């Protein structure tokens, strides 16, 4: 993956530089688009919205590149842009209803799948984002704080509450006294 | 179970993500209710992520680059437009100030004394000069005003998406 300045060369007039920038961007896109789409899809529950937000995320990334970022920082920056877009979207419209897409994959444990979906549907968008970033993307609390703009100290507590809530929905008989 | 969760949860999750488990960590994860609950949920979410990955078909990066370029152009145009608008406001303020200054000067002018001192042809030249200046001012303003009128007509605005249709669409 190339640095942001090289990728930002797509805006420069030189043909060689633009080609290098495009190639850098393609590599970055290949490496990050799928996890980012998964995150957006999980947060919104709508594939077409995830598609739109994915494109918008990369457009914003290309328009406002930050120089001297390594691979992890670039990934974190992309997730931050995506989180901000999700936040703007939830502020601008009622996104509480979480449509679930038609899934054509072969399912071995349909009940468990529906359980997870149902649990996620009942969580707040911020809770869904925190759980995904920590448990699927494997981000540290500091990284999650950087992505979400929340305080690093509060991530642990918020994550704990979100997990408790999700577990209560998933396994009510275990957690209820 | 603590109200803030286990302090090792972050390390356990990282180990799950990277696969770098130590024996002590594995023992802790098996015994700690917080960590085992976190691992259970993480596994369920990761399964969901794998399913989502099968559904994912991200668009070609070429279209994203095109869209970003279009946005960059629009951003540049907006910036230049703001600069031009500021310059026009400044020009208008300047014109008003000059007009006020000229009117003040004209009011203070002893017209009769000046007119009697000037021969008849000089008055004619002065009038002609004023007419030419006015003609130039109108000629300069005409395209700007015409452009504004065009912009204001809704039928003339081309929809943004029409200009960027993919080939064959």
Description:
The complex is a heterodimer of chains A (177) and B (169). With 177 residues, chain A is an all-alpha fold. Helix content of chain A is 73%, strand content 0%. In chain A, helix 3 packs across helix 4 and helix 7 packs across helix 8. The longest helix of chain A is centred in the first third of the chain and has 30 residues. With 169 residues, chain B is mainly α. At the A-B interface, helix 2, helix 3, helix 5, helix 6 and helix 8 of A face helix 1, helix 3 and helix 4 of B.
Proportion of residues in β-strands of chain B: under 5%
Number of distinct helices of chain B: 7
Oligomer classification: heterodimer
The major beta sheet of chain B can be summarized as: none
The count of β-strands of chain B is: 0
Biggest interface in this structure? A-B, 47 and 40 residues
- Major beta-sheet overview of chain A: none
- Average pLDDT of chain B works out at 79
Class based on secondary structure composition and strand pairing of chain A: mainly alpha
The helix-strand sequence of chain A is HHHHHHHHH
How much of the polypeptide of chain A forms β-strand, as a percent range? under 5%
Head-to-tail CA distance between termini of chain A: 51 Å
Structure classification of chain B: mainly alpha
The low-pLDDT segments of chain B are: 156-169
List keywords for this structure.
heterodimer; A: 177 residues; mainly alpha; 9 helices; 73% helix; disordered C terminus; B: 169 residues; 7 helices; 79% helix
In brief, what are we looking at here?
The complex is a heterodimer of chains A (about 180) and B (about 170). Chain A has helices at about 5, 15-45, 45-65, 70-90, 110-120, 125-135, 140-150, 150-170, 170-175.
């Amino acid at each position: 993956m190339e640095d942001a300045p090289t990728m930002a060369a797509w805006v420069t007039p030189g043909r060689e530089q633009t080609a290098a920038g495009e190639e850098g961007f393609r590599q970055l896109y290949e490496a990050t688009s799928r996890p980012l789409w998964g995150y957006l899809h999980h947060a919104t529950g709508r594939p077409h919205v995830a598609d739109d937000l994915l494109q918008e995320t990369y457009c914003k990334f290309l328009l406002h590149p930050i120089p001297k970022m390594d691979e992890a920082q670039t990934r974190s920056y992309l997730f931050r842009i995506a989180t901000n877009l999700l936040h703007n979207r939830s502020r601008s419209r009622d996104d509480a209803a979480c449509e679930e897409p038609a899934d054509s994959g072969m399912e071995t444990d349909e009940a468990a799948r529906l359980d997870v979906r149902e649990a996620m549907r009942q969580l707040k968008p911020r809770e869904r984002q925190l759980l995904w970033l920590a448990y699927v993307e494997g981000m540290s609390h500091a990284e999650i704080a950087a992505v979400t703009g929340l305080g690093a100290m509060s991530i642990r507590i918020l994550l704990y509450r979100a997990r408790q809530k999700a577990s209560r929905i998933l396994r009510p008989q275990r957690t209820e006294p | 179970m603590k109200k803030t969760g286990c302090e090792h949860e972050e390390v356990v999750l990282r180990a799950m993500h990277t696969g770098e488990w130590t024996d002590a960590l594995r023992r802790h994860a098996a015994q700690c209710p917080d960590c085992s609950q976190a691992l259970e949920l993480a596994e369920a979410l990761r399964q969901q992520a794998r399913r989502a990955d099968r559904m994912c078909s991200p668009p070609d990066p070429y279209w994203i680059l095109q869209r970003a370029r279009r946005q960059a152009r629009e951003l540049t145009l907006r910036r230049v437009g703001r600069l031009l608008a500021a310059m026009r406001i400044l020009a208008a303020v300047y014109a008003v100030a000059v007009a006020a200054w000229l009117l003040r000067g004209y009011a203070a002018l002893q017209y009769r004394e000046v007119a009697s001192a000037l021969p008849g042809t000089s008055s004619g030249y002065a009038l002609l000069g004023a007419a030419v200046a006015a003609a130039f001012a109108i000629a300069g303003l005409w395209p700007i005003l015409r452009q504004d009128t065009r912009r204001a007509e809704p039928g003339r605005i081309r929809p943004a998406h029409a200009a960027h249709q993919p080939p064959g669409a």
